[in-house]
């Protein structure tokens, strides 16, 4: 039995959901909603949609009670997520929401509780958690492949797109935070963020974010959308090597760098340095996420990977980072 889906928002990211769900044998795209008629028409033409079967609507109100809808994909600006998701859940629909779930952790917690009450799936689109390199990297860490994790680092820079609703912190950091939390199977207890503003007042273009975990592990994340040196690189340094996820390295995105010191009197001599490419499975992360959502809907089992609870925890971290940013880099403890 196919899942009837309404997709809200077909901008730069939303069209990819149309692509995957319109091609999936277990899904039926019932409606596509966007305030822009031009985007709707482009989407219709790009995916050769039959408008006798797929409703193209300019607002949620006009299709929210359609009898064939059983799940809703929310790919609208984050500020609009809370009322849309709440309404969809109250109508008995399963929901897949673009990250962040909302901009307020209390709203996130409320939506998560509502989904549980209604016995509906609430999945958040933390796409990187479905990347083959991230999945394999977690297994490497769990098997002790780099020894005891000591510290982490990540860089996420590019030249645009520059957001006008949220800072580089909210736009970019959630990806690397989610990977660190997933790989470490933990969440930070202390947060520190420092930012610089060039293009727009009150929206940081450059952010240095530090996550401090309960066991003392620290990760530093460099975020900037005003840097032509595009990087998507994350690493965890362990006592026996370093695990690196470099998204822009298409040939070898996951590597392990080995090496150790030999002590000779007062000197430390590097030995055994080599780089090992770690094989990963093929597959598009967003496609895997869409399949995971459909499977969760079919089985009624909440996602262990990217549930509303996971989304709520990440928004708590971002809120704490925003507070630290506003206080000039003061360390903030997560409650």
TrEMBL record:
InterPro entries: Gfo/Idh/MocA-like_OxRdtase_N, Gfo/Idh/MocA_Oxidoreductases, GFO_IDH_MocA-like_dom, NAD(P)-bd_dom_sf
Record domain GFO/IDH/MocA-like oxidoreductase: where: 138-243
GO molecular function terms noted in the UniProt entry: nucleotide binding
Superkingdom field: Bacteria
PANTHER family hit by this protein: BILIVERDIN REDUCTASE A (PTHR43377), GFO_IDH_MOCA-LIKE OXIDOREDUCTASE N-TERMINAL DOMAIN-CONTAINING PROTEIN (PTHR43377:SF6)
Domain Gfo/Idh/MocA-like oxidoreductase N-terminal stretches: 5-126
Name of the protein in its database record: Gfo/Idh/MocA-like oxidoreductase N-terminal domain-containing protein
